[in-house]
Amino acid sequence: MIGDIFFGAFGLAVLLGIAWLFSQNKNAINWRI
Known about the structure:
This protein is mainly α. The chain is built from one helix and no strands. The protein starts with a helix and ends in a 9-residue tail after the last helix.
C-alpha cells in the first residue's frame, strides 16, 4: 500500500515536472504541428 502511494506521488511529480518544463519552453515549441 505504501508502495502504491509512493508510485502515485512519483507519477504526479513527473507530470508536474513535465508541465513546468513545457511552460518554461513555450517559445521554443513549434505549435504549428
